[in-house]
Amino acid sequence: MSEEEPEMDGPEAVDECADHTRVRDREATRQRILDSARELFTRDGYAQVSSRRIAAHAGVNVALINRYFGAKRGLLAEVVAEEAVFPGVFEGDPATLPRRIAEQLVHRARGEATPLQRALEHSAGDPDLQAIYAERLESAMLVPLAGHLSGPDARTRASLAVLTILGLGTLRRVEGATALAEGDAGELTERFTSIIAACLAETVSPQSGPSGD
Amino acid sequence: MSEEEPEMDGPEAVDECADHTRVRDREATRQRILDSARELFTRDGYAQVSSRRIAAHAGVNVALINRYFGAKRGLLAEVVAEEAVFPGVFEGDPATLPRRIAEQLVHRARGEATPLQRALEHSAGDPDLQAIYAERLESAMLVPLAGHLSGPDARTRASLAVLTILGLGTLRRVEGATALAEGDAGELTERFTSIIAACLAETVSPQSGPSGD
DNA sequence: GGTATAAGTAAACGGTGTTGACTTGTCAAG
DNA sequence: CTTGACAAGTCAACACCGTTTACTTATACC
C-alpha cells in the first residue's frame, strides 16, 4: 500500500479550463494515450498493462485506443517505432565493432538499458507482438549490421551477433538483473567482445573439437 | 477447413462402457489432462491454448484443471518438468563441450528441436511462466554446465553460453525458422563452436579493439 | 444561429483464468 | 442390500480482458 496503485488520476489532472479554444484535441489525446502507454509498458511490460488501464491513466475512454491505434498492439508498435535500438553502434570502424557492441551489452547487463529496451524484454514472447518485434529486429539491427560487414555470409554473421544480443535480453528477463551484473565490468566487456568477434568472424577455423568429428 | 479444428472430440472418444469397474479415475483423468496440455502447448504455445480448450480436448471439465494443477501455469510446469533440455550434453570431455553444444544448437536452428523446446520458445515471454522458466534454466542448464567447468568465473561463463542458447530460441521465435536454417550445417556448427568456446573461455585476452580504449 | 462532423462515451460481445457450491458416482460399513 | 461418506466431476458465476457498435456531445464552419 504505497504509491503503486494503478488507479491514479492520470499523468496530469486534465484541467478543462486551461484553454477554452480547444478541449477536444485529437492530436493531444492521441499523444496522451501514447505517453501513458509508453510509461506503463516500460514499467510493467506489454501483457501486464490492460487497455483499460492505459485509458484510465491517460484520462480517456478505452474505445479511443482502438479508434486511434487500431488495437492495443498498434500502441506498442508506435511506441517501439519511436526509439532507436543501439544508436550509432553499427556504424563506424568495423574493426572495433565487436567492442562497441560489447559495451552496449554490458550496459544492458547491468540494468542501464533504456526503459523501452526493458519493456521489450518483458514483452518478447507475446505472439501478438511477433510481427512488430520481427520488423524492428530486421530494420534496426540485422540490416544495418549486415550492411556494415564485409566478407561472405554477412547475413548469417549478423544473425549470430543479434542472437547474442537477444539472448542477453532473455537471460535478464528470466534470471533477473543479477544474472551478469556482478563481476568486473571491464572483464565482462572483454568477454562480450570476444564473443561478438566470434559471431562476426569472416571465416571460422575448426576449434577444440578437431577434425576427427 | 481441414483437419485443424480445435473442437475435435478429444484424443480418443471416451468410451464409458469399456470397463465398468472404474469410470472415475483420478490418476487417469490427471494424466489425460496432462497429455492434452502437452500436445496443445507443443503445437500452439502456452498463451494460445486456453484452459477450456485443454479440457475439451481431454474430455473433462474445465474446473478439473485447477483442481488438479492449481492453475493453468501448473500444467505447463508439470509438462516442462518431464522433459530433459539437452540430454547428456553437459557431461563428458570439457574440451569438446563447445562442439557438442554447437551441434545441439544447429539442430535447433534447423527446426529439429524437440516439440517441447519449441513450445517453450513460443511461450518464453509470458511473465506468468517466468518462475517456471527460471527454475528450469537454473537446474537443467546453468547448474550442470557451471558444474562441469573448471577455472574461475564458472557461473559467468556458463551464463554466457546459456545466453547464446536462449538467443537462438528468441531469434527463431521472432524471425521464424528461416533465420539460420539456410547455409551449410557444417560451417554453422563451426561458427557455433567458436562462439560457445568464446563464451566458456577461462581467460579472455583483449581482442580487435585494443588497449587504446 | 444552425448544422455537419468529428471527438468522445457507454454498454455490450465473446473470450479468458479461476472459484465455490452443487451433483453424482464409488466404495465401505452396517 | 441399504445406507452413508467422500471423492470425482459438474455447473454457473466472477472479474477481467480486448474489441466493437450505437450513441451523445462538443466543435467549427456556413
Description:
- Two copies of one chain form a homodimer.
- Chain A has 213 residues and is mostly helical.
- Chain A has helices at residues 26-44, 51-58, 63-69, 72-82, 97-109, 115-123, 130-147, 154-175, 185-200.
- Chain A folds into two domains: 1-82, Tetracycline Repressor, domain 2, CATH 1.10.357; 94-200, no CATH class.
- The longest helix of chain A is centred in the C-terminal third of the chain and has 22 residues, at 154-175.
- In chain A, α7 (130-147) crosses α8 (154-175).
- The first copy, chain A, starts with 25 loop residues before the first helix and ends in a 13-residue tail after the last helix.
- At the A-B interface, α5, α7, α8 and α9 of A face α5, α7, α8 and α9 of B.
- Chain A binds a DNA duplex (30 and 30 nucleotides) through α3.
- Chains A, B: This is HTH tetR-type domain-containing protein.
- Chains A, B: Residues 27-87 form the HTH tetR-type domain.
- Chains A, B: Residues 1-26 are annotated as: Disordered.
- Chains A, B: Residues 50-69 bind DNA.
- Chains A, B: Residues 17-26 have a biased composition (Basic and acidic residues).
